[in-house]
Structure formats: C-alpha cells, structure tokens
Amino acid sequence: MQYLVSVIDDKTNSGTAEEALAIDDFNEKLRTGGHWVFAGGLAAPETSTVIDGRGEQPLFTDGPFVESKEHIAGFWIIDAPDLDVALALMTEGSKACNRRVEVRPFLV
Amino acid sequence: MQPPGRGAAVPGVTEAVARAYREQWARLVATLARRYGDLDLAEESAAEAFATAVERWAVDGVPPNPGGWLTTTANRKAIDRIRRENKRDDKHREALMLSEDAPPEPLGAVDDDRLRLIYTCCHPALAMEARVALTLRMVGGLTMPEIARSFLVQEATMGQRITRAKAKIAAARIPYRVPSAQDLPARTTGVLAVLFLVFNEGYLATGPDTDPVRPHLTAEAIRLTRLVRTLLPEDGEVAGLLALMLLTEARRPARVAADGTLVPLASQDRHTWDGALVDEGHRLVRERLASGAAPGRYQLLAAINAVHTDARDARDTDWSQVVALYDQLVRVDPSPIVALNRAVAVAEVDGPQAALAAVDHLPLDGYHAFHATRAELLRRLDRSAESRAAYDRAIALAGNTAETAYLARRRDELVTAAPDRPPRSPGRSRTGEAPG
Q1: Which of residues 48-87 of A touch B (CB under 8 A)?
Q2: Looking at the domain assignment, is residue B277 inside a domain?
Q3: Which among B374, B321, B385, B324 is positioned nearest to B352, based on CA atoms?
Q4: Which residues pair with A3 in a beta bridge?
Q5: Which among B334, B368, B389 is the end of a domain?
Q6: pLDDT by residue (tens digit) across A54-77?
Q7: Which CATH topology does A2-99 take?
Q8: What is the pLDDT of residue B111?
Q9: Fewer CB in a 10 Å sphere around the end CB: N or C, chain A?
Q10: B246 in a domain, yes or no?
C-alpha cells in the first residue's frame, strides 16, 4: 500500500541545513525499512504552470491552480502495510522536516 | 434500542430477539469484519441476520443457541451479498471457502475481535464525531435514526458521516487489529474519550428545546464501558471511567427538578440516588485504591465522585479530601477546566475569596461553567452586580436547557435579594420578571 505524504508549509525556501540533515537520516531509515518509494522538495507554488490540454489548443496559465495560505513544499511516497505503520513512520518524518505533513493513500 | 423489524407472534420472541441483539450484535459484527475484512459487509449482514431472526423465530421458535444461529445466518447473508455484488478479490474468495463449515471461534478470539472493532471505530485518524457515530453503530448496535436523534443532526448527515468514515477505513487501510503494546495506552485513552463523550452528551445534553438528559445515551455509554472492562479487566483507567459513569448516573434521578431546572449537587435529594449504582461505583474505586497503582485521570475523577456520594448530607462532604484529589488530578491533567473544578472545592475549604483568586486568571472566557462558578463565588462575596454580569455570560454560553433555567433563577434571586443595589443600567432591571 502506497501513501503520498505532503509537507505543509506557509513559507517558500524556508528549509534549514539542520532540517536537511534530519531528513537525510530519516530517508535512510525509510530505505532500510523497505518503505522508500520516492521523495522530493518542490520549488515555490508561484513557479507552477497550469495546463488545460483538453481543447484544440493547449491552454497555459500561470499557477498555482489554487491560492492558499499553505502549500505543498515537498513530498514523500512511502510503502507501508497499513495506516498505523504509515502514521508511526511519518510522525518521525514530520519531526525530521520540522513541518506538518498530510498522509493520503493511493487508490488500489 | 430495537432490532430492525417486528411482528413476533410467539410470545417471548420479541424479548429473545432484543436480548440476542444486546448480547450478540458487537460480537457478530466483529467476527464478520475480521472474516471478510469489510466493515460495511459485516454491518449489513449482521443487520440482515437479525431481521431474519425476527421472522423465523416467530414461526420456528427461538433456537437453543441464538448466538450460533445468528452467526450461521449472518455468514450466509454475507456470502449471498458477496456473490450478488460479484466481489471476487482473493480475500473474499478465501473467506468464502473458510466459512463453509468453519469451527466455532474460541472465546479469546471473539474477545480479540470485539477489541479490534472498538479500536478501529475509535481510530485517531477519524474525526471525533465519526468515531462516536461508528462506535455507537458498529459496537453499540444503535440504528442510524437513533444516533442522529441523539446528536440532533439529520439522519442523512449522520449516514454520510458513517459512510465517509467506513470509506476512509477501507481506502487508507486503517488496520483491523488490537494496537501494538507501545501504542496501546494512548489508543485505549482514545477509546475512553469516545465513551466519555457519549456519556456526557447523554448527561449534559446540549441544544435549545431539548430534554436536558438523554438517559438512553448514558445507559449505552455505561453498557459499552462495561464491555470494554470485560475485554481489558486489568486496565485501571477503564475501571475508573466505569466508576465515574456509575457514580454520575446514580445521581441522575435527583439532578433535574420537576420544572426542568437543574438541581446542583448540594441541593439534591440524596434519597433518590440509585444506591445500587453508588455501591458498584464505590466498589470499583476501592478496588483501584487497593491496587496501589498510580491513578490516572478517570480514576481520580471517580474518587472525587466517590467522596461526594459518600456523604449522606451535602454538609458532611469531606472537602479537604476533594481538594487533595484535585491536587493529584492537576498533576495528571493540568488543564484550566480541572483548575476551575478544583477552585469550587477550594471555596468550601478556604472560602470564596481564595477560590475567586484561583479562578479569575483562567483562560476560560468561552466556557459557561467558568462564568457560573465566578457568579456563585461573587454572590458569596456580596458582589451582586459583578455576580449578575457573570450569570448573564454563563446563561448566554450554556447549551443545556436545565442548566440555563437554573442559572436564570439564581441570577433573578440575586436581583430580588439585593434591592438596595440596583443594576448599573437601571433600564435593564429584571426585578420581578419570571425566569425564561
């Protein structure tokens, strides 16, 4: 079972070197435990572009698609047998990146 | 609580079905949920089995082993439903083969199933209101309309709440199991919080124009807590919560006057308290004291209630004991609400001035009991105008009809009792007006 874990932030490029180290350690733990699928940090939401390719001509607009106080600053995709395992892991992940995180299951 | 459907012709069948429903519902849902890995299917099949029991037992008589009959019938319903809905994933197919002639479950496994069900319904990833609704439906067996009425929401809203919670359990894969030893204490605390919330909504029902007490909810909370106690007999906090509920419920007959006004503890007719419940509650508190283990929040609250219910007359209350217990409780639970309740006991030992000093700085401006407590303390200090203002705030914030009526009466007594001290704005005087 895979879960998308979004890192919630209200500032951009606000990560510290200390947090980066803690995240590295945590990622290592994910790999060792066989939970790692993918992870990455994201550039500011203002750098995004929205595409509507359903018409004859593709329509490009300056993003983000929804304006909000908080945004997704990065994410993990993890593999866990159930939500309890995912929650226990990502409680540590939240500590490591020093942000709140949202755990959301992929459709199976 | 009524099982679905009626129409029993054979005498005693309605009672037999009702009793089986009380005794077997949670076990049936829990076993089916483990076997088929699907809460929805478990609930529907259990409900269908009871509906069939209402029809069949009226014709064939009550079977010698109602629990076994219900399990077999519910399993058949589940298999029918799986075939009908053409669910063919491995888990279901496997379950289908298993249940053809599955041996009876050993008792320990049944207990485990019910615990699994309770922990799943009270999972911290679900919204609190969903945990409450799911627990009442899946474990308590209350019907959707009953739950909706209990919490004053539309049936459709309550239905959606439960459907959403079940969908999340399935999609996010909330596991159907007893939590690990490491998580167990926190998860059990979460279960007790759900049960206490159900009890309080019954005991201090909120909402304008509604009954101030909903006894079916307090009864259900006690029944479920008894169940949890049989499943976790060693847990001191489970025993503490049960004792707390029993000692509170025991006072229910004395708590609301004939005119619908709340009767505070000090003025209650103690002869109308339920002696059997008081005895049972005291027994549990003594048992916990004898264990020598450090008491948690519910055990301390139960002990405080034991002191109150021990006094034949309110004047005989051992208030210094109550304060000592609150001192312990503050260490376990340093919340402002505990500090507020402690101050009420302090007033009896050290006087209203000391209590007011302890209350005034508390960050509870949005809580009716904070203002009600201040109002009573200010009254005792003869500061009528301030007391009246505090009653006004308390009345505006209180949600329980009996409590509102009581506070209004106290406030209006204040006005007539101090005619030489008119309110600051004379135009708003309520002298002589009947309380609302």
Answers
A1: 81-84, 87
A2: yes
A3: B374
A4: A78, A105
A5: B334
A6: 999 999 999 898 888 999 999 999
A7: Alpha-Beta Plaits (3.30.70)
A8: 72
A9: C
A10: yes
